[in-house]
Design brief:
13 strands, Rossmann fold, 4-stranded parallel β-sheet, Hypothetical Protein Tm841, Chain: A,domain 3, about 290 residues, 6-stranded mixed β-sheet, alpha/beta
């Protein structure tokens, strides 16, 4: 039993079973479909497969960050357990959630002066943020003290690499990330944009891949270039997908061929509704520990 609480936002895109087995608490972001709001609770309220099926049938989801009021309520409940809290939030480069969590922390501190709440900006999201939290849970279970874990976490977050691509440009057009004209040309040419999160946790386009096969190869090439230890890499490697499990399996096979120490160890998860609302079906993300993103 740990002497502190490890917490995060549901944007980690893992599973309820994983969160419970690792004793990781979480607060839900929310999304809306056809005017109905749902919590992003790893598919408990709406299975992820149903979410993507609705998108394929024309539904246009919207997403909401966690506001100060909800964070305050969440932190209050945790503070009542009498343990310090280490909360890992979604990237400040993509959402205002982190700032809301900081404001809520101050409100809870006024009501519970003895509470200790530490809020860290993951500078990441999706299953990469999940891998980051997973590594921190490993160190916690190995007995690392909270103060040391916080210092370790601040260094580690700059070494988590986030690479992903999307096959459907419609949602990038709708979200304003690319222009309608560029999106139309990209669709005709079957362009799959390869993107990454930079050192500020902001999405940055890096390459226009002509076709899905090229994009899949580009993911593996980035891991070859940046993975810690090169082809001897033996740290965690997570992959996520938006309703394209077979494509994710193909990428896993390509990685295992290049990185033999990872055979049978790569973990695969669904891209949840918060990230998936912006990528649409057909996206794949690859996450590993590598050279410093700064």
């Amino acid at each position: 039993m740990s002497d502190f609480i490890l917490s995060c936002s549901s944007t980690v895109d893992l599973t309820n079973e994983y969160m419970e087995s690792r004793d990781i608490r979480y607060i839900c972001f929310t999304y809306a479909l056809d005017g109905v709001e749902y919590p992003h609770d790893f598919g408990k309220t709406m299975p992820v497969s149903e979410f993507y099926e609705k998108m394929k049938n024309g539904a246009e989801p919207t997403t909401s960050q966690v506001n100060v009021s909800r964070y305050t309520e969440y932190f209050e409940k945790l503070a009542q357990e009498g343990k310090p809290i280490l909360h890992i939030d979604f990237s400040s480069g993509m959402s205002g959630s982190y700032n809301c969590a900081l404001l809520a922390k101050q409100e809870v501190k006024e009501k519970y002066p003895d509470s200790n709440i530490y809020v860290l900006d993951s500078l990441g999201g999706a299953t990469g943020q999940g891998m980051y939290v997973s590594i921190l849970a490993d160190r916690r279970d190995e007995g690392m003290k909270l103060e040391d874990l916080i210092e370790y976490a601040e260094t580690l977050k700059h070494k988590i690499h986030y690479w992903f691509f999307a096959t459907d440009l419609k949602n990038f057009i709708r979200g304003g990330r690319i222009s309608p004209a560029s999106g139309w040309v990209g669709t005709i040419l079957k362009i799959c944009p390869l993107l990454r999160l930079n050192e500020k946790g902001v999405i940055v386009p890096t390459e226009k891949c002509r076709g899905k096969a090229k994009a899949m190869s580009a993911l593996v090439e980035r891991m070859e270039k940046y993975a810690d230890g090169g082809y001897n890499y033996n740290n965690k490697c997570f992959i996520s997908h938006a309703a394209c499990s077979d494509d994710a399996d193909a990428v896993i096979g390509m990685i295992e061929e290049k990185f033999p120490n990872l055979k049978g160890k790569i973990e695969k998860y669904d891209i949840g509704p918060i990230i998936g609302s912006h990528t649409g079906p057909g996206a794949i993300g690859l996450f590993f520990v590598g050279s410093d993103r700064t």
